Amino acid sequence: MHTYLLTSIAFCIAFHAACYAEEMRSISLWNGNMDMTVINYGARIQMLKFAAQDVVLGFDTLEHYAKVKQNFGAVVGRYIGRIVGGRLPMTTGSGRCMRTDTLQLQTGGNGDCSHGGTPSFSARYWTLLEQQGDTACTLRYVSPDGENGFPGELTLDVTYTLHHDALRIDYRATTTKPTVLNPSNHSFFNLSANLGGAVTDELLWINSDSICLYNNRKQVTGRMASVEGTPFDFRQPTPIGQRIDADDEQLRVTGGYDHCYSLPPQRSLDVPVARLTDLSTGIAMEVLTTEPAMQIYTANAHKGNIVGKGGTTYPRRNAICFETMHFPDSPNNPQWPTTRLNPGEEFRSTTIYRFTAY
Fold first, then answer.
1. Which of 186, 259, 302, 326 is catalytic?
2. pLDDT of 132-191, one tens digit each?
3. Is residue 259 annotated as a catalytic residue, yes or no?
4. DSSP track, 320-358
5. Could you tell me the pTM of the whole model?
6. How far is CA 28 from CA 62, 165, 323, in A?
7. For this structure, is 16 an active site residue?
8. Best CA proximity match to 34, nearest among 21, 46, 16, 52
């Protein structure tokens, strides 16, 4: 009787602990100039206000994030973008004992491992590790060894910090086995004060002279191409929509911009790699990062069937994403910077979104 009672009590405690661990919660941050709401489901940015304007897409209620399969504001991982065929070559040992095994990751309908598989980190419940006053918080996700085929137990901490005019995102991670890691935040930005309005009139500047090329299945080929003389050249501020429907093979593959730009090496975190400007609101956002690449996505797949904040419908091209990252499929393209993380090492990465208003 006593054994049964103790077992039942232990089960109830464990059950309630599990329910609490998977309860959707929100964290509010503010600094007098910017307001932000983070939710523990996918470590998502639910709201980000500057100059009294919310600049990120999302939903009003937390439950919608679990019901609607969108990466609004989420941290995506272990590997944002695609690993072609789900093939992950991992080398172990050294000298004569060195060997390379090809691990098979989980793949989706396209035959590739996309955004780290399903569920991605964006659909996991994160633990609120720490909140530093009103301006910063750290969330943690522990990805078990073998999750979606990836080796090693991975511990990833993401810290959001509000500065006077900027949001800083810091990533730190460790692993128990050699693995790969390429996390990124997938916020959808719109600076127009109308989250249902098109971003095609907003001015975009990108400090990049080349992009990764796709084949007709939207798989990176390992080749880079110059942006010179193409619709992908944003080295001078240009309206997003000015050339988005140009007769271009790469644009036909994606139906708009959804491409990885190479960023200049040996740059300071103080130097922006991109800038988005809305002339109607006077709000501009700069992107600064330690990462070697950045995926630009113009919400080409939005169809007007998603109802977001305030009952606003999200139509095609009503937002733009700046996914700071390493290159897609870099484990199978050794010419690109490695994403390998070994035991005893610490992964670190920083991205800043800095705002101005005039």
1. 186
2. 999 999 999 999 999 999 999 999 999 999 999 999 999 999 999 999 999 999 999 999
3. no
4. EEEEEESPTTGGG-TTSPP-EE-TT--EEEEEEEEEEE-
5. 0.93
6. 14, 17, 23
7. no
8. 52
